[in-house]
Amino acid sequence: MYARPLARLIEELQKLPGVGPKTAQRLALHLLKRPDAEVQALAQALVDAKSQMGYCSICFHLSSEPVCDICKSTSRDLQTLCIVADSRDVIALEKTREYRGKYHVLGGLISPMEGIGPEQLNIGPLVHRVNQDNIQEAIIAISPSIEGDTTTLYVGQLLKPFTKVTRIAFGLPMGGDLEYADEVTLARALEGRRSLD
Ligand SMILES: [Zn+2]
């Protein structure tokens, strides 16, 4: 149906989240119509972002430097830590402008089905950090789902001996991602956090 180079492009685009065969075809055909320089810039941006971005050595948020801007900031509340599954959640929470503490990104959720155990996540460094930084409150901001609840319980139990542990209130549907919540809903969820029993 497609010449080989075009088929390859469509195939690669289709691997992106939320991109089905039709969208992949539309994007590919669109790109072929764009000037060479523009396509080159896109390709270069992909390669550069992949090679230059890494993870903050303290909180594991995406960062182009060894320590991210949030961890470097001295104007934030140093003793409140918000624990999230993914960097996307940090971005969503930052957009609310309500939260002024620091973050810790777990890098996923505990999922026995997918063979992801606590040791595959950034949980060891989290416990170390809570102790070392004298964290007064650890806010778990993980949306409800089977994996989310398992992870919340696991992390909560681990941290309870060392600090106050709270969970953000969710008016969100089960499995709803933090990033899909609007800023007001997310700010309210943060405001309405309660102690994790
Ligand atoms: Zn950081």
Automatic annotation (TrEMBL):
A zinc finger (C4-type) spans 56-71. Keywords: DNA damage, DNA recombination, DNA repair, Metal-binding, Zinc, Zinc-finger. Residues 79-173 form the Toprim domain. One of its GO terms (molecular function) is DNA binding. Pfam families: RecR_C, RecR_HhH, RecR_ZnF, Toprim_4. The keyword Flavoprotein does not apply. The keyword Ribosomal protein does not apply. InterPro entries: DNA_Rcmb_RecR, Hlx-hairpin-Hlx_DNA-bd_motif, Rcmb_RecR, Rcmb_RecR_Znf, TOPRIM_dom, TOPRIM_RecR. GO terms for biological process: DNA recombination; DNA repair. HAMAP family: RecR. May play a role in DNA repair. It seems to be involved in an RecBC-independent recombinational process of DNA repair. It may act with RecF and RecO. Belongs to the RecR family. This is Recombination protein RecR.
